[in-house]
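Hi everyone,

Forwarding the result from last night's run.
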Amino acid sequence: MFGVKASTVLPEEIHKQESGPSLILKRGIWLYFLLLIFEGALRKWVLPGLSAPLLIIRDPLVIWLLFKAYQKGVFKLNGYIIVAWVLIIISFYTTLFFGHGDVFVALFGFRIFFLHFPLIFLVPEIFEKRDVEQIGTVLMWLHIGMTVLVAIQFFSPQTAWVNKGIGEEAEGSGFSGGGGYFRVPGTFSFTNGLSMFYGLVSVFVFYFWLEDSRKISRGLLLLATISLVAAIPLSISRTVFFQFVLTGLFAIFTTAKKTKTLFRILGSFLSGIILFYFLSMLDFFQTAIMAFTERFTSASEEEGGLENSIIDRFLAGSIAVLTNELSDDFWGAGLGIGTNVGASLLTGRRAFLISEGEWGRLIGEMGPLLGFLFITIRIVLVSSMFTKAWKVIGQGNYLPWLLFSFGGILVLMGTWGQPTALGFAVFSGGLILAAMREKDE
């Protein structure tokens, strides 16, 4: 329905004579990735006085990337982008004339689809599979350090500097956890960033175990696996656990098209079980498991059991959008009003004025017609990603399929009103498409 085209760019270390513009754009994508990981650290520890503007620190970079790519003929419009731009422009004007009328709140909502959404299609214009694998290798190193930081935050009081909140907030950055311990955010502003970080890490841990060729050292992979197994209870995050299990299931599904992956999958699961057994002998890990178990049990009971907990975790109220009328206003309440930033600008406090679920926010902000059209765009895009990712498994390329286990959910129903979630959604969506682009040796 909507064509997606991209030009292949060789990785820097393979093609030393890579053209200047392509190399610059590639570095820009890497900078986006690093800012996504360390934006919270800047807001909490480095420049707390600038925490508010740093929330959208990636926006100027996206503007530059889109402009530079268009200028050099690297970025091309497609049906997804054109339709999204037309709809978001209409919604911007209806916000000013029929909605809340605040131009700054409207612009905050406007930037989501006008600026960041096209990045999904720009990444595969610049990256190819080898670049995505390099992202994974860097993630292996980063997440080892992240897990050390998470452990320090876990066992430190909320008054400790390492648990400092964003900006000048006196309160710690942790959220309610279990067993007297808090869910910690790592380098991110909030715990959701850490959960998505480990979700992406899980993809590459499984991928590197599935690969028969040694794309990274086995020592690094083993250390990264140990760190991931330790991070699940230390994060006290059910999302991290559910995402790990989901990616594992997607890995198992690869055997339907490549039966030889079965033994590698069984080997990776066996390694994980052995690692978990040895880690469980350590006091710090036992404490983390206790806190995680208490959090898992209490939260599941509050949500009506494990089944409802899983549905709420992944569907995030989206089913309610299809069964309930969330907005009586044809044009909605206006762009941005459903985000925490929009609520802060309009009411002076952070809140969900529309809906915690993403689809509910879209319909509440834009009205039933435009809201459902935006939901349709995301459904069509994710369906296309799913089909293509499944197809390339037969060619021995498991990476897009495993990335879809994480990025597909975020593109479909991730809470794009929150900047970190938006960043992970569009970046992982771009990686899914980029991982399908292979260059012969």
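The mean pLDDT is 84.

Cheers,
N.
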